[in-house]
Amino acid sequence: MGESSDLLEQQSHFAFGKNWASYARLVTDSQVERAITSLSRLVGGDLKGKRFLDIGCGSGLHSLAALRLGAREVVALDIDPDSVATTRQLLTTYARGEHWSTQVMSVFDLQPESAGSYDVVYSWGVLHHTGDLYRALRSAAALVAPGGSFVFALYARTSMCWFWKLEKRWYAAASPAAQSRARSLYVGLFRLLYPLTHRNSFTEFVANYGANYGQMRGMDFNHDVHDWLGGWPYESISPAETERLMQRLGMRQVRAFVRKRRSLGLLGSGCDEYVYGRG
User: Fold this and answer.
1) Which residues of the chain have pLDDT under 50?
2) Which domains does the chain have, with CATH numbers?
3) How far apart are CA 204 and CA 220, in angstroms?
């Protein structure tokens, strides 16, 4: 399932960090509260007294949410230096005096002997962008302490995954002008198809994006479109595949928020969310 070794390197990836840095300038207290609500839903309450590892920290919004939920320590990691810088700035602004740290690091370089273990290992919408999803899942799961939780979200398997893989490879290498045209085309198609499956208007959807899907991603609609179209490397996985791998790693499912049926994926894959426990 993994790609060639060069896809494991940050230089071959889409510029996720620059997109997160742009989004982070828009963060308000309401976005922080939404991130707290989203994270609490996944972890099943608060994080009082727990060590929390955020793999692929992006803007740092969910690292901040973990601190607000009572985590005694948060370690935020990302392979992209721009994401780490953005996370550091956000936590310096909103969590001064709290116990947190940031570091530029790949999930593939994390070893329990040096990185330690954590009560919660969290990685939302990240591991499918590493270039080797299965290996990334194994590396992250190895850091879960006995009795701890592995909380993650991954692109769902759809019938259009082959197309999105080609599109993302192209978009990540395209010029800013070409990317802008692609975004306009995608949003136009989204606007055209949206009324076929939803009762509210597309305008309402965009206006309320942060309060719905955006609270899970920690992103607004326009930044999320750029992130989706450019998300290279790209892999997807079914709930059944995820369950088989987690069982082999000695993990048991605690909760999951997944699609019941495989979708076409015409406008995107969307993420299935999982929580697995060790011991």
Assistant:
1) 1-4
2) 5-158+233-278 (3.40.50.150), 161-230 (no CATH)
3) 13
